[in-house]
């Protein structure tokens, strides 16, 4: 198994008290190796996405403004992160990681990235800590690339926040099926319709969440995708300060097991991305991220 990392790209320096827990990436890498869930040999540094690859999902004016640093302050406030060369490097690396993971999944059945899931980035703007949309870029590249055998893609987005940017980019693509299971009253407050949106009330726990997921997964697989992009955000966890749902660690693992086991049973390659996690303390989110990869190893061996 090959899993792609972005350790070569600097973690952006954020103002004191910023809500985004940028330190979680280093904590995750250290813990996932220390516990032997993924080995050093399985973790490969990603190649950053090119401008041409970014343009498959994003407007040229927006891409160039981000890459050059000419983007205005109002649009950066919408993203929620200050512009810096490091931010650009990390955003490009995250997209590259997802594209490489998708290619590896097509070859090996499963792959992923310890980054990404940046599903709030739209064609012409970023939002919600998301600069470029890694899943949408990877899906677009594979759909338009000759010889890879990808005719249909599916996105299973189980972050607590709806994947509005992914829907804005891929929503009119007949070869894409988009499933989003998220909190009804959470960000983004203007949602963009996916193929199927499941909106859950605040406080939803394990049993109700898993029942809702069980109800909608069969239709996604009936679409017969050639690859599934799994946005495995862990912010439905009860401890998450931005989540408002009430899943336990066991519930999140059961969620992951349902998606991954179905992919394995049907022979559909699956590529994972990290998604959101904002628990207090952040170690609870890190534990949930590690658990997702424990389930990957359990299901795929």
Q: What would you say the CATH architecture is?
A: 3-Layer(aba) Sandwich
Average residue-wise pLDDT: 96
How many β strands by DSSP?
8
Oligomer: single chain
Task: List the domain count as a whole number.
Answer: 1
Share of residues in strands: 5-15%
User: Which shape, going by the Cα principal axes?
Assistant: globular
CATH superfamily heading: Histone deacetylase domain
Uncertain regions: pLDDT < 50 for 5+ in a row?
Answer: none
Kindly provide the radius of gyration, computed on alpha-carbon positions and rounded to a whole number of angstroms: 17 Å
- The largest beta-sheet arranges its strands as 2-1-3-8-7-4-5-6
Question: Order of helices and strands, N to C?
Answer: EHEHHHHEHEHEEHEHEH
Assign the CATH class. Answer: Alpha Beta
Largest sheet: 8 strands, parallel
The rounded distance between the terminal residues' Cα atoms is 9 Å
**Helical content band:** 40-55%
The class by helix and strand makeup works out as alpha/beta
CATH topology: Arginase, Chain A
Number of helices: 10
